[in-house]
Amino acid sequence: MSMRNRFKKTIQLQDEDVYSDSGPSQTDSPAPETSDLVKLELWNKKHSLQTEVNKLKRKHESSLFATRKFLFPLGVLFGVLLAFAFVQPSDIQDMHAQLTLLMDQYDVTLPQLPDFDFSRFETEWNKLRSNIPELWKFNRDGREFQVGERMKARGLSAEYPVVLIPGVISTGLESWSTSPEYRPFFREKLWGGLNMLSQVTFNRDRWIAAMMLDPVTGLDPPDAKIRAAEGIDAASSFIQGYWIWSKIVENLAVVNYDTNNLYLAPYDWRLSYWNLEERDGYFSKLKTTIEAFKRRQKKKTVVAAHSMGATVLKWVESPEHGGGGPDWVENHIEAYISIAGTHMGVAKAMAAFLSGEMKDTVQMNPAGSYVLERFFSRAERRKLFLSWAGSASMWIKGGDTIWGNSTFAPDDPSEDSNVLDANDVRGRRSGHTHGELISFRRIPVSVPIPEEGETETRSTRLMNEDNGFGVKNMTSEMAGDWILEHTPSSFQKMMATNYSFGIERNEDALNRNDRDHTKWTNPLEVKLPNAPSMKMFCVYGHGKETERSYWYTRGDFEHDESAADGISPLCIDPDTGSNQTGPCAGSTPRNPLDMPLLRKSWIDADYTDETVNPKVRNGVKMGEGDGTVSLISLGAMCVEGWKRRRWNPAGINVTVVELSHRPVPSMPRGGANTSDHVDILGSTTLNEIIVKVATGAGNEIEEAFVSNIRTYSQRIQWD
Length: 719
Prior knowledge:
6-stranded parallel β-sheet; 26 helices; transmembrane helix; membrane; LACT/PDAT_acylTrfase
């Protein structure tokens, strides 16, 4: 046999040995009986390599983390912990109902299971829950009823009836639609509760269609009908475990409040204030309830309103609406407590209407942001926001007078907050101001700069013209007009017929505004009620970073319902009394050449710089506030505006209580000293204030300040 043939045969034998799968283990195969030294050497090398491979394989397979087998038990453990944190025994029945609803919807049939007695299960469940520290429970943190117990121990008891008015998105909304596609959800909550989560997940398009209002009428779309839930449960919790008003209700109950002297006034927060009365008679019902309290109990009522709910009293006085007359508030309202009131608007509302974004969306981690955009895009969110006319009441008010100009804002940060004024630009470390509500960087990080010699793209060239985007940095007034130009004509008409956002100093004009419903949500254009004996309290949090202004970027042109970047972006309609007729009705048709005339705009989330002041995080310039509402909106009117007779002719005493945000990191909702915009409703101090006012001990409440709001407010040109 030639050397070449012998070598080929040896290699063939080697391949057969190495790749053979016969036998229990290749490492246990005996050595070949041959005197061929080459073959023996190959066998030894193969045997050695196979042994090493098997050792490595066994080591890898024995590692729990390498095989990721730990993920399943970890998920089970996490689910059990969430169950203990959120689920109450009564929720088991709700889960069964939700499962049945989904099975019916998708025609899923399971065999009939025998009935199960849950009584024993409920007992054991409660026993297990009781052994978990209160610290780790989302819906309970060990402070339940404590404020009420302390007040009761002092001998305090229910003195005045109490009305609670929730803020925006706090009230649960139920489906009353009877069209076939919505019948499976009849009387189910489409906003709030576990059912909302299942509908958003499995019926997203149908849920959006039901929640979106008609853009022309501002009322229910065809075949869909949604109404506010009723009763105290309508806004006690958003979903199981996430309380809203429940802690306040618990503490009031300890001092002898119940449904006979406590009323929660839920409302469909999607509606404009006009439609809220026209469709649901909301303000008429509220007026009737308070009058009934006065007849039965011979006492005036304490009103506690949160967030957007803090702007509702003017309706009851108007002869064309509530018909209560100028003295109605004096005769029926003992005290008014504004809790984190959005008196002069919210910056995040402007961003939501412009691009469907806010701090909460741009500061998500990349994976969460990607999922959100794929599941519920910016354009879809914006379209939904634009249909909710009620949220437009939070459009910022007062313009540049309140929010600042291109060189100065009253709440601009500085090295020395006591010396900053309109001319002190050097006092700001960054030289930038919150007065520019929307700013544009010349070259955003997300747009690549062409290399030398490379032909400049059209998009990059456009962004380098006129401050990079064809628009300049904008103050609040400029931004308000610009955002409005970028909305459909139906939204523009809705705004014109429902709201006003200026500032009025003329007393004769303020008197006329008493009959103009478009002014009633703006405290700068309407007077406080003629109620000299009414006590008024402004209670809000401070110490949590809050979005105050934005860095934006722009992209390509796109088709939209508005030709915002065209020649005539604003809607012009001589018929100002209707939002259903005229050239502004419905959607603006596409232009004759069918050219895309709207440029995409979005928060420049790539831009972060925490070394400047104000700091920038993901395109959001951070300021002071309660995490949602800026300090200027929360407190300036309470501290300075209502001290002036033109806006407070009766001289109502306004007491301001600022609460420092001092959350406990290990508690999901912050604990007793949180002052977050929503979590403040569980704050011990706020609960004490409400219970004291309701039980007749409101005279014990003293003003308290933890911010520079008095300094900021004095920089505003009120007169």
